[in-house]
Protein 1
Amino acid sequence: MDSQTAIAIYRTMVRIHRTDQRIQQGLAAGDLQFQYYPCGGQEAIPATIATHLKPDDESVITYRCIHDIVAKGTPLTEIMAEMYGRESGTSKGKGGPMHLSDPTSGLMVTTGIVGAGAPIATGLALAAKLKGTGRVVTCSFGDGAANIGAVHEALNLAALWKLPLLFVCQNNLYAEYTSFACSTASPDIASRAAAYGMAGEKVDGTDPYALHAAAGRAIARARAGDGPTLLECVAHRLQGHSYGSEEAHMDAALLAAARAEAPVITFRARLIADGHATDADLAALEAGVMAEVDAAQAFAESAQAPGAHELTTDIFADPTHSPEIPGPAPSEPARIETTRRIMFGQAINEAQDQALAENPDVILLGEDIEDPAGGIVKATYGLSTKYGRDRVRGTPISEQAIVGAAIGASLAGLKPIAEIMINDFAMVCMDQIANHAAKLRYMSGGRTSVPIVLRMLTAGKVGSFGAQHSQSLEAWFAHIPGLKIIAPSNAYDAKGMLLAAVDDPDPVIILEAMRCYFVPGPVPEQPYRVPLGKAAIARPGRDLSIISYSWAMQEALAAAETLAADGIEAEVIDLRSLVPLDFETVRASVARTGRALIVHAAVEFCGFGAELAARLQESLWGQLKAPVARLGARYTPIPFAQNLESMHFPDAAGIVRKARALL
């Protein structure tokens, strides 16, 4: 190692150490208040790896992160300001110490969820590969995360696709309060790489010389297109799991030895012994670092806290898409008349075809989406043949990896459409959806966005799918700020809303009802958009309003026909979009008719209809001619036997009975 590199590594190590110590001093004094995870003992790992990275190389790190973000080059002023919850912090004070974000320096995500960053890193690396940027992505996590399923899915995907990615396991010998020996029967982490068909190496994480050589090999391998590496860096933690936590679970003798030979101490001595610097040189360097940390703290202490408006900023690109502060519904272009009729599923296929043709940044990810399968309901049939398997990319059965890769790719400028085969399977990857796709814009203070589309089938009332393949989870999604949810009921809307979702700057979940998939409707051949957040009056009426969406619209419209035969004119509203929500169209309809019946295929208890009912009651109290009514699925798992399934879901006859009761 040349002197310039060696001294650069030491300077970064000192900057990390002093910043870490200053944060802990602030916590001790009561000036700061948060859960903090010290990095003592691990300073050399990112400081050394950073010497091989270019400014535009990207990183995903975990909540024990102060060493990683300092090494990546984020200004100490921004880091310290975030610790103080200031508007000039890395995330405008909205991320905090576990969610630091600095895309300017390539620090794309800091996650507070163990192991969750690995799938996102694969997406960043995929984007680098597809775009030919030459970037390398690093992903840091601890030894505890090495036993998390998301990490295994990411390792497999990265190896399969030969991504330019360096997985850095910072093995500090304790997963929270559990020793490494009690966490796994494996003798180390690095040897697991062979099972995935990738390179793996174990190195002393306190020795910059060894780290420099090992990281150099791994990053050169990634830049050459030879795929990822799992680099295990062993460095004994010098404190408990978090600031102020106990150390009784730690081996006292090993801890004392590690503290006596802390990397900052030993590397300083080695720099002098090897002739890279004198004691006076390093003392001057250390004084300069201390002055920098002092200035960063002073800056943070005097900086402004975020204004009240920041509470509701950065949930979505447009704040008025929040149901809490809604703006006017978007205007909808005139419907394009056509005699051409195709099925709902064909409309979904055509929308993806046209999105791929219009925008080279659009990619498709999902299980079995490539030809000859073309998806389990042929939603992607023909597209991999037409656009190639780089852009229409089949994946392993790994929902966390699919969504995480879509998130990472979107952070790097791509527009992924990811398929989760069945809505029920979203539960397998809910962390990626709810904690990352939904929150990254907010946690980064608007510095990053996640413009992905997640396509999911809902399979209710088509028979034979049973309790784990037929659910409708839209109320769950709607409860998570940052997600947009759409549920078209017909082929025209399916195509137009999917194309609009691809254009949207926020994560959009489109629920595609299998019961609608083979229902034909008029669909223009050219591309068009149906705006999100605009309800449609599917049938005008005067006596009551029936509000629904997705396949339940079939039952609502059928019920309206039955009621009309008896002289009862029901107005049927197709919500189409749950978030953003066009509540004004619903409210205006119910204000005219005086009666409302909300119908959905999801379980009625705590369903989306409950939110609508509450809003209508609050908004129209005194004008209603009857209480707002709801009709949803029964409070049971979805049964297999078709006679029981028919009893579980709402149907036209049940809607008619409810409507008559309202009248």
Note: The CA atoms of residues 496 and 529 lie 4 Å apart.
Protein 2
Amino acid sequence: MAFWLLVVVAGAMAAGPANERLTTEYSLPGEPGAETAERIVERFGNGGNQAPYLVSFTHPDGEQAAQGDAAAFDAAGEALPDLRLLHAGNTGDDAFVTDDGSTAYALLFWRWDETATSLPTDRIRDALEEAAPPGSTVGVTGYDALAVGSEEEGWGVLAEVVAGSVGALAVLAFVFASLLAFLPLVVAVGSIMATFVMLLGLTYLGDFSTLVTFLIALIGLGVAIDYSLLLVTRWREERHRGRDNHDAVVVAMGTAGRAVLVSGGTVAIGLISLLVLPVPFMRSVGIGGALIPLASVAATLSLTPALLGGIGPRVDWPRVRRENTASRAWTGWATRVVRARWVAAAASLAVLLALVGAFSGLKIGLASTEALAQNGSAYEDLHRLTDGGVPRGTLTPIEVLVSSDDADAVASDLAGVDGIDRALVSADATSSRDGESVVVLIPDHETVDSASVDVVDRVSERAGDLDGVIGVSGVGAMQSDFMDAVYGNFPLMLTLIALLTYVLLVRAFRSLLLPLKAVLLNLLSLGAAYGLVVLFWQYGWGSDAVFGIPETGAITFWVPLLIFAFLYGLSMDYEVFILARIREEYDATGNTDLAIVQGIGRTGRLVTSAALILFLAFAALAASPATDLKVMATGLGFGILLDATVIRSLLTPALVSLFGKWNWYLPDWAARLLRVPPSPVAVAEPEPRPVGTGS
């Protein structure tokens, strides 16, 4: 306990510096669009894969935009470093004025600062207001300005953790009905602080994404509480059966503690598998995320037994609920599922397969701007432009790096590509340096998903045949690169995670069939969770009602991967919790159906409570104003609820009952290889004794 007190103090000191060292870098080294973007940033100090800001001057009472607006844009540009401005004055294109002539706008390409904690919109607005023509109104918008959400800042990480903790405490109070409810929260604090200590050290070895902070704070909270909940529940059960405190701790560690170790391994495997992807920020999330189960397991298996061995009996007060008998409700439920196993399996599979069917309509990309901020100045400024005839493709232009001598010819040719509204070549010195220039193409529509990004592919194909073209970049090109680099390697990632998980579970359950079922059901559960995300967000069947956000039209390219990496291991936790107890009961009774009833009776309330705690943590994460974080949080929440209800409470017991004695088969050769006792198939299982009250 003294050691963990030091860890908490060190973690409190490390959290701030660790957060300051995190970055928002999303580079894709080795991909053509990424290499072109890097060259553009190196040459011009801005742009590349970074969407530009749309800055504007609007004149009152419908007054025509003055010719002096070009000079005002240039004056604002001189006050800001390392930017590139395209407007009517330096491109000769009159499309930079809205249809009613009252608003003049410009494209402002800014250099992305991966260490910045906020967007530069305030700095840009200040420079524009200093240079604005008399009486005009300044506007600043763009994809990034819209993506951070409305002008409401949201709760912040600390407030979200507090909200998640309050919800978890309410669930724990129901489960224990005693002061023991506070113990898993204490363990979770130690786990989270230990994670920040480790993260700070790792930031000196490489760059880590800012996403890691949210994951540590909220997923770390739920995971640590779940693991400690499992161990404390088993300790309490053994105490109420009559064991003294020391023996109860030992038995809990030998049973529930072992399940926690296996569960932590499955979560870590899911995250470590991200290392096979050639994307630095995804690898950083994998490494940083893997710290969560590592710290959670360490805290659960060292701090929890120390607390139980020291103050456990004293805080188990008042003893409103006792654990010496299985839950009557869950025992009855499991009995009915076993009796109607064919119906239960068919019904649950039908629900899951229907949701998997919805998953087939998934579009990968970025959320449309309509699904981003729904209020605030960026939202109003965008609609002022689009209502004036400015195409939404202006938010996601395509940048083509060319030889300066060929810029006009390339622009003229690429302007004719299907889906391109116009091509812009700036005469300003900031757009041409060292014999290279950037031609900016404006698509008809936003290039934000796997369907609308086709225009980028057409531009890249045509540009490859033109003299002087060095490369194609932009937001759309970044998506194409990501699809090739990440989803092209996804089969390798899936194979790796499935194989490692299968081997780990074969050793844990001493069975060849149960781990295979667990892996396949996990993949089915993930597909169903993706289906719910598609319905809720991509099609908007719920996002507007719950969050006031219309359909996104696509799911941001990195979100499905992070949902997979985390949800694969988190949902496997419940499989391990349940099957470990069923295996224990089977070893004691030799009867599969009886083991299922007793195992579900003992773990049903536990798994439901653990899932609810994680769901509340994800709900707190969904309070973030950023749409992408909301999508990820709801996807994880959907997956946890599906897994704890349809999968673990219905389909798992039904299938285990159908498989019968073959659940427990582990041949001698496999047992020797894994260094565990063999598990031969029983000739016949004994008749089950009456069930319903105890084990």
Note: Residues 584 and 595 are 8 Å apart (CA to CA).
